[in-house]
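If your schedule permits, I should be very grateful for your opinion on a structural question. Kindly check, if you would, that the fold set down in the tokens agrees with what the sequence suggests. Thank you for your consideration; the sequence and its tokens are set out here:
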Amino acid sequence: MSEKLQLVGKTISGIIATAGEGDNPHRIWMLQFTDGTHVEFVSPSARRRLIRETGGHNRLPRAHSQVA
């Protein structure tokens, strides 16, 4: 979703969160809506961890295979 106003009037059908380490709060939240769309909220520390664990910004893009 590119604009905040696209959230107005939607019905939430699910909420997803990953547990933080130890006593830390959940880090990544995703709201799923009844129309099939979703929006994700990522904390700054979770974003840094995801970047670090996936090879950072320096990784090469994966080639997508094409089915004939």
About this structure: Helices lie at 44-53. The first helix runs from residue 44 to 53. The two ends are 31 Å apart (CA to CA).
